[in-house]
Structure formats: structure tokens, C-alpha cells
Design a protein that fits this description.
about 375 residues, alpha/beta, CBS-domain, 3 domains, 11 strands
Amino acid sequence: MQDAGEGEVRVARLFGVPVLLTPSWWIGALVITVAYLPVVRAVLPEVDDLTGLAVAGGITVLLAASVLAHEIGHCVMALRLGLPVRRVRLFLLGGVSELARPPARPRDEALVAAAGPAVSVLLAALAGATALVLPAGTAGWLLAVQLAAINAVVAAFNLLPGLPLDGGRVLRAAVWSATGRRGLASRGAAAGGLLVGAGLVVWGLSTLGSGAPGAWLQFGVAAVTAWYVFAGALAELSRQRQQLSSVSLAGLVRPVLQLPAESAVADALHAAAGRAVLLVRADGVAAGLLDQETATELAGQAPLAPAGGAAQPVAQDTVLEDAELRGDPTAALERMLASPDWQFLVVDGAGRPAGVLLRADLYAALAERRRR
């Protein structure tokens, strides 16, 4: 599968992750270089136009490198947590690291989100320390000062509490951890993104009204950045609405077969015939749902071993009520998406087993809806 889209250029592969430049990045690089020329001329009045252009271009390169380092911070943390990364895309306003699947735990979500700003803060500190030891008013000093400022701004901006920014992901992780509902947390963080976007618009208008030099440029940056934040927040809200309304969980429930936990694992697999299996001990207490993969491995080694040895315990958060699936399944869907477990026991009003829901069936249904 190709990782580059139309017009995108792959410039590197870091930690096995392709790094792409989108067409808008080139536009942004040109605009930033031109915008920095007056700054270079003001600080280094003795340099000629060609040298000034080279310094302004150097600042643009440092900005791109800083954004890339920020995104690589996300990638390294994600990979350490076992989350595959499809690619890193650099565009007009920054970059994005595209994970192959979302984090399954709030802690992982927060760690991946915070890793990027942490790299930016570290780079800002190192560049600031370098600027302190360089002679003021030199090209090297200007590059160090700008590198420190760029990374400080990148860190501060990304920590604003709203999706699609890193601060929004940290906020989502906190709400998710507190409530156990990832969907609710996503909607709250997306609402935060709308507030952040509105704040950027207000800041841009106030800057424009001040009549300060470069006000139009600052307004343009604020407006484009606000558009990016608004677009990301609205896309997340749309994605949540689609997920919560497009799938009938009740229609995905598989029939469940009850077998004694003491049954031979090979016999349990044969009797299942593709159905879910609830293993029950002799005292009538459920031992758990048969884990097909573990049971297959166990049967290959000891076909007469008790099937209970391949049971996935039924925890409270993996039990769904049939009534909630047929009514408003929002809470059940969020629990399934947030849980690391892959199968869920469905019970009727009296608490009797009524079927099993598999995470794989849910993902397949969501994927089918996206293809329509």
C-alpha cells in the first residue's frame, strides 16, 4: 500500500515511519521565508539581500525540523507502547502523526499526546541556552533565538485544551480516565477545540485592530490556524455522531453456547462450530468465555485438557445488557471501543446469557459503514 497521497513527497523514513511533505508545506515555507526577511534585516542590517534570504530560509528549515522533531516524539512514544504509526505528514500549519489504531487506554493516549510538546520544550531550552553563549546580533544568535521561540510557541499552542491539538488529546485522556467513556471524552475535547478556535479568531481581530506593524500577517496566521482547529474539532464531532448512530449493536450479537468448564478443550472447540462459548463451572458460576485462539493452542498440546484453561474471565465491564443494546446503545458502544477486551457477554433482563458481542464484528460494521 502506498503511503504518499497525491502531490505528497516522501522525504525520509524514521523509525520505520515514512515522512511526507504535502503540497501546502511548500507554500507555507515560501510564506514564512518572506515573512522573516524583515526580521533578519532589522537584526542584521549589515548583511546583503542574498545572505538575508539565506538566514530567513534557515529559520524556515529550523521550523520544519522542529515540527518534525515534535511529531517524531509522538511516533517514538506510540511505537514504545506497541501502537503502529502509518506515517507523518508535514503541511502548512504543522504536522500530524497518523496511528494505525487509537490507544486502548487513557494512559497511552496521554503519553503519546504529551510526547510531542515535551520534545518541543526540550528543544526550546537547548536553543535558548545556546543563544545565551553566542554573541548577540550575529546570524547564529538569531537562528538560536528563533529556534527557541519557535519551539516554545509550538509547545504552548499544541497544549491548548481542544482537539485536534495535543492538549485536546490530553484532555480527552483525563475525561476518559475519569468517566470510562472515550466517546464522551472525545466530544468534550472537540468542544474545547471549538472554543480554542474562537479564541484564535478573537486574538487575530484584536491584533488587526491594534494597527501594529505586521498586524495583517498575524491576523492571517490566526485565521488559518483557527480554521485548522475548527476543521479538526468539527471532524471529530462528525466522526463521533457517525459511530454512535450507524451501527445496530443488537444485530451484531452472536448466539452463545453454554458448556461445562470441565469439558475437553478439543470437544469444546468442535461443539462451538464458530459460535461463542460460555464455560460454566460445576457450581453454576461462569468460568468465562472460551478464547478461541488460546483454546486452539491448548488443544494442539493437550486435547483432553479442561476447556476452562482457555477461558477469558467475564469482568463486570465486559457484560452488556440486551435492553441497552436495543434502546440507546451509545454507552455500550463507548464501553466496547474503550475496553481492551475483544468479546463481551450479553445478558437479558434476568441476567441470563443471551449472546456475545465481538469487537471484530463491531470494527467490521464500522468499516462497512465508512465504505458506503
